[in-house]
Amino acid sequence: MNFFEHQAKARSSSTRMVVLFALAAGGIVLAVDLAVLVLLGTQVEGVGGIAVLLFIATVGTLLVIGLGSMYRMASLRGGGESVALQMGATEVPANTADFQLRRLRNVVEEIAIASGVPVPKLYVMEHEAAINAFAAGYSPSDAAIAVTRGALDRLNRNELQGVIAHEFSHILNGDMRLNIRLMGTLFGIMMLSIIGQRVLIYGRGGGKNGGAILGVALVALIVGSIGAFFGRMIKAGVSRQRELLADASAVQFTRQTEGLAGALKKIGGLHEGSQLTDKAKAEEVSHMLFGEGLSMSGLFATHPPLVERIRLLDPSFNEQQLQQLATRWMAAPPDGMQEDLALGLAAAPPPLPPLAREISVTPPMIVAQVGLPAEDDYRRADSIAQSLAPELRQLAAQREGVMPLLLGLLVDDNPAIAANQRIEVAARLGEAIATQAWSLRTQQLASLHPMLRLPLASLAFPVLRLRPRLELDAFLAAVHAMVHADGKVSLFEYCLGKLLEVQVRESLDPARYARFGRRKPGNVKQEFATLLAVVAQSGNDDPTTAQHAYLSGLQRVLPRDHLPYAPPPEGVLALESVWEGLDALDPLAKQVMVEAITAAISHDGRVSVTESELLRTICGVLHCPLPAMLERG
Fold this sequence. Notes:
Blueprint: H1 3-40, H2 46-75, H3 80-86, E1 90-91, H4 99-115, E2 121-125, E3 133-136, E4 144-148, H5 149-154, H6 157-172, H7 175-189, H8 191-202, H9 210-254, H10 258-269, H11 279-285, H12 306-313, H13 319-331, H14 336-343, E5 358-360, H15 363-369, H16 375-387, H17 390-396, H18 402-409, H19 415-429, H20 431-445, H21 450-464, H22 469-483, H23 491-508, H24 510-513, H25 525-539, H26 543-557, H27 579-583, H28 587-601, E6 606-608, H29 609-621
Helix pairs in contact: 1-2, 1-7, 1-9, 1-28, 2-7, 4-6, 4-16, 6-9, 6-10, 7-9, 8-9, 10-12, 10-13, 15-28, 17-21, 18-20, 18-21, 19-20, 19-22, 21-23, 22-23, 23-29, 25-26, 25-28, 26-28
């Protein structure tokens, strides 16, 4: 199953969740109506009176469920950060000096670079000694990954890498968006149970009416248990199979099973396991955790049995071995940092390819890589991370340095255009930021390898989105002005500016931009024609060759349509009209779109390093993240 099939499956799961929610709500309404009829039916005269009573009970119950879901969804509008903070997690600073946290950040940054997505926000659940983790958010732009202190203490680097790769699978495959919506939806159907619990706890001193109040609370608790039952069933049904898929994706990514299997063995062999101490919070996020957050089994288990997960990674493993590990670790618990020392250093990563190098790719080959990085992507990401100058990485982690750094990437090579860009930046953000951005461009960024530009932006993004909203609005205005300073803006500079704009907008209001598209290629013909014409024109100086590239891409996506090659006179700026329509394509239509873009760029069967980065940027804008390495082997 590739990235686009995962996305399509996540969309169908979202639809199924809505249907199950409706059935659960209907079951709760019927139970409430029955309870009202039994308790109050004898006090009402006539069929009409009973009908009014049942109508009031039904509407009241639906209001409680609906308002509960709306309230919870509103509290989660902040995306992944909201979930992490509500779980009591602490954010990991970008420039942390703590060695354990630095190890975590390095692993996450390398996997983000390899995946072609922004580095997510990082959090640690400091008071949790169990081994667990989760990824939350509506999209990669607002994603957050949280790990427990137990995971940092007990897991070695390979095991931590396996857990983080598992969580990145949820980020890439659309699971994360479904998970956060599931939290909001299920809160509504559990509202009656929550109300009943609260009244029973706090309503014991109700005076004359205390007995009646407690009776109503008891009924609410009993009826609400139906909601709890359905909620756990829905979470278990949605979550279990996706955990196995995430395990498989993590293995595909890291190309080794020992890390992930080792983490699961430590969960089974240590007393703390994966169960969180705050049971109420663990209940709500149980479907998005790496391991079981509560002691659930059978129909209510949100994860497959632990031994089953381990055996899929290590077929020779059995429960007796788990008992042996538990006995050994009871005497001497594992220490992840000490295990790192015993493992030694990894082999040196391969060098970055020269700018003049060309690679051979095919559209199906690129489609297979979207959202599914492999082991060579991880090694390439290591090369990229080590190739970035320490000064640039330091700026990417500083609040005051991140804006000049990103703006410096967008400075045009043409001095006249660059002069106009500087005026626009100074007017919006001040002369100091403009001076620093142009100084960085001259001294370090102008000679930066093309494969380092997007990863550098990815590393800087978590710090950028911490800035106040007004500053981010001014920054986006400056970016927009830079890419529109002259009609001769390069396609890469335009796309990088657009990618920054998309990611910042989504991080500011993640719930607003979270959606699964439903459009088909036939609904966006002109958008396809414009995008392919711009791509073909930018990569070929000869009009005839450009036309062939355009037709090669069009044949992939609209083979029965005859749309003539007509490069837009405004050039790259014509793309402003295509993004919304193309991003709204359904997942399987996006697969065809990526094939079409690849065919246009590689119509001669060869792709340069610069062209490959252009392809990655366009795919990033359209939420189809490409790994760092297009070539294989």
